[in-house]
Amino acid sequence: MDVRVKRRARRRSHSGPPRIKWWHLKGVKQRIFQHKILEGGIRQSHGSANDMWERMTHEIKKVAKETLGVSRGFGPRGKESWWWNDSVQSKVRIKRECFKDWSRGENVETWDKYKIDRKKAKKAVSEAKTQAFEGLY
Q1: pLDDT, tens only, 1-10
Q2: Domain containing 109: what range?
Q3: Of 17, 37, 72, 108, which sees the most CB atoms within 10 A?
């Protein structure tokens, strides 16, 4: 007798507690956040340094949650693409189309075109990341 036991796929649990969406701190939301912080009561200068620090961090987090929002605590890991731009997107799209053409026909010409466009896409990604991270370092 042959017996097969099928394993159930487990659902991924939450990867952590909800986080403040600091990556939304751009443009209009940045100005709103700044206005609310300056308007709030952070400037109180009585008590010890630790007490003042605690009040300040609590106020900043409260305003950030109101302005920027909070995540549900899970999401894609390792897929940060805030550096992605239109140039990268167009080159990757061309590369994908070339790969589809090659997989349909599988001849030398389409493979060579795919390799060239793959190199262009990698270069565009590298340049975009370098440009994005330039301001951080």
Answers
A1: 888 877 777 7
A2: 86-134
A3: 37
